[in-house]
């Protein structure tokens, strides 16, 4: 019977019964370490195979990327002798990571006819690198594979959301099952008096859910007066009865809310941790709620659940009482950090900032919308900085194009040496504001000249100095000269200022002396640049020259001890830099990458920051200040959209060809969903806030905006991109689409390279008839709007 050490017990037979039930979707098997979960699964596999059923066993231990789940399952299917070769177009890997679970589900559905009542056993969910994210992938598979039974084994982790597995029956090793608790309720019903039965029927109004909820109430006390009740009214009546006479009724309210926010079912130890009570105290209070028909408590399995998930909405809707608002009232901030009034309140502080400051990272690289300007704005208001740079002062520079225009001659924008020198002039001008009062007079004068030439504020001059300048003005020049090594530059002085005609600033010497002075005074200055891409936005040759010169200037500044540079740069511009030069920057470069959880935090924080939702936000916020993502999402969106769990649907719909999701898209999606919602002006009466229809329409609109950004804003391969949309070509070998390019837009190789850097194209390695072959795919982010 499989493992020789296996001792037959009731849980095993119950598992086998569930897997034989036609309507069952499967089992969530919970148990502490050493209780025999893996042994039970292996035994079940042997028994089911002996009954001619198709069974696959996959261990999830150490799995990192949730999207690898499909690959591991298909590997197991192939190892069992099923053909998943070229006919099924199996994707081996992509530039964005792994193939979508949709592809895995599609292949498995095609193979179903060759299988016999297939069962998928997934062991060790708790040993995965990120169980909460992996559970979302398992949920997606469960939704997609109607003809399959799933068994998922795990320790009862505190962050393992039961709502993920609402379709699966919970089976806890060594304890009573939820089904047995339901049998006990059904056994109590026939014993009720006929009069009570009639009254229950009247109140329930044919609703079996309401009937179940009323059973315990009928045995304990009189029933509410009046005719048929609505579910919210009935719930409120039962809650009021439970709280009447209770010394601390707020405890009962809190427990109900916690269970509702967990999706309707929660573990006792998690409720205890979130409420700050001992587990036995929680059980005592839950027993009171059970007496009044609100919850079902399984003492053996140590779980509590509402009678039905629909009670979740009724409980959460209590937050709306006395706080009338409409969807139109909700504010989500701006998708541009420069004008985002909610940035500070909703900023997701990740490890990136600590690494930028503590590890002296001077280049921060990320796609458009990856949060570079948010970091810029956050650091610009955080001085002194700390994190390894105690006493540092940050000098933010956002208008780089305007400054460069003052010192770069019109014919020098492609001259690498002149541009590098210009960048060092700008850097020196901002360092000048940090010179200590003890600095030599000549050094301070050079600093003032630098800042005046760039029209930056300088310290007020004394009366005598002003008189002397006024006398010298008729003899002074209108330009200031700079030398940076062998390169000479001139800057036109602003109107109303003058310098002696022969004045010149040696920028290299100035920076060296400033670095020594800052070291002696134990100070550090960091000049920070953002929005480099706005300089010559549509002239790619000049834009590339500006970026390359800046990176060369960064290499020079990196040699100083107390003068630092921080450049926030778009990925596609950084990728244009020569690879040999980039290899010298590796230790100073940080690439912004958003984890799925961090991105979802951006989304839910933007919603929960609204005043009418603050009480709910407080309940959802953990001790670490981080919102419970799963609980918050069910307040905002339906649990499933287009056949996928909502979080998986959001992430897969917005992931680009590089596997990245943009926090800017989270903000934009919320704006679009609000604006496209029907009755946006009507008062919100329940959760979720948005319907599946409105968020689907918003996602399509966002897709259209993203597509147009490639064509009209980035202006990359516009002919090819438009032709792909016209012909709905979203997956292809490059050789098959050569005719869709216009070489007036550049060589085909360059066009493809730029589209890859922007994430418009995703490389796909697929199993072909003659072995692996390379294809390109356009992600859903850009193609959803085509249909």
Q: Gist?
A:
With 787 residues, the chain is α/β, with parallel strands linked by helices. 45% of the residues lie in helices and 13% in strands. A hairpin with a 4-residue loop joins strand 8 and strand 9.
Write the layout of secondary structure elements.
Elements lengths: L9 H11 L5 E5 L6 H14 L4 E5 L8 H12 L11 E4 L6 H11 L7 E5 L7 H14 L4 E6 L14 E4 L5 H11 L5 H11 L3 H13 L10 H13 L5 H13 L3 E3 H8 L3 H13 L3 E4 L4 E4 L3 H7 L26 H4 L4 H8 L4 E4 L5 H9 L11 E6 L2 H8 L8 H16 L9 H13 L9 H10 L6 E6 L2 E6 L11 E3 H14 L3 E6 L10 H18 L5 E8 H5 L3 H4 L6 E3 L4 H13 L5 H7 L8 H8 L3 E2 L2 E2 H9 L8 H14 L15 H22 L4 H10 L3 E2 L15 H10 L4 E7 L2 E7 L2 H4 L4
Parallel strand pairs: 1-5, 1-6, 2-4, 4-5, 10-16, 10-17, 11-15, 12-14, 15-16
Antiparallel strand pairs: 3-21, 7-9, 8-9, 12-13, 18-19, 20-22, 21-22
